[in-house]
Amino acid sequence: MTALPDLAVVGAGPAGRALAHRAVAAGLRVVIVDPAPDRVWSATYGLYTADLPGWFDPAVIAASAPSVTVFTPDERVLPHGYAVLDTPALQRSLTVDGARVVVDSAVALTATTVTRSDGALIRARHVVDARGARTAEHRDRPRQTAAGAVIDSPDPTMVLMDWRRAPDRSAERAPSFSYRVALGDGRRLVEETCLAGAPPVDVDELAARNLARGGSADVDEAVDFPLLTGAAPWRRGHDEALRVGAAGGLMNPATGYSVGQSLTVADTVAAAIAAGRDPHAAVWPRSARTAFGLRATGLGVLLRLDPDDLVCFFDAFFRIDPTLQRRYLTAHADAHGVVRAMGSVFARLPMRLRATVAAATVY
After folding, report:
1. 166-210, pLDDT tens digit by residue?
2. Within 146-222, where are the H helices?
3. Fewer Cβ in 10 A, N or C end of the chain?
4. pTM surpassing 0.85?
5. Are residues 66 and 50 in contact, defined by beta-carbon separation less than 8 angstroms?
6. Which residue, among 312, 351, 347, 303, has the nearest Cα to 72 in the 3D structure?
7. CATH of domain 7-38+90-133+229-284
8. Is 216 exposed, middle or buried (0-12, 13-18, 19+ CB in 10 A)?
């Protein structure tokens, strides 16, 4: 009789494949369910180098720098190492040899079962939904949008946020910033981003702003995803599958950062299952729930600020201790760090803006 799988992962994108990869490495019996498990990933993934897990293959890094640059609007260089990943190499590195791969769609999930499109049932000790956040289902929620072009450039600098207005577009009231990072091999991504909007700036307008900044007229990368899929992603029904990745709340709702959390949480889930513990409780301790709620409050603040105040807010953020910046941006369960960062930013805001921010946190 075939042994019951320890884990069924539904979705073979970055979050699902990373989880399956680490679960196999932990000695678990794994099933992956995806209608196209070998489809090529095309998104650009960047993260702070300090957030790379110890098992990560450094050959997957396409380009890196020991610091990042922001303009708010004055230039500031911050001591955060930053890496842009080679997406095809990332996909190849997350091997799932030893896992059973089922090429099919899942039409229904429970905590221990996956129903395939033909009605067949897959049973496992644990089922994890890693299918990602589906934008069409969350059009009414705050979303992040971006339009990027890949250009030839040897420039190695990593510009995470350039809030200076695009030339000849100073009248634009909906805010956006330029994200410019090295991709390796003499290439560079120049991308105009609407950090958060409800609704956000549309991709065509962002492409026009990108061109005004000196980018290409081409749109090599278009981004549109929800920053929130629920007010409390840790809440689930008694028989509901655990969700990971962006759809499971493993994203900073105030920034859209998710890849670092997905890579780290893969080990958390695998270790919990291997030890016979509840993976949901391991992913969502009280500190993680509190940190998520605080960051969701931060997203609410950003949505209420006008463009000039938004730039002022980020200028204050990038003047706080760099360690606190990172604790706010990436640490999944560091509620204490998030509180300290938010308090430090508030103390650096002008009095007028403090009142606006305080009111936004109440309503």
Report:
1. 766 555 668 899 999 999 999 999 999 999 999 999 999 999 999
2. 203-212
3. N
4. yes
5. no
6. 312
7. 3.50.50.60
8. middle
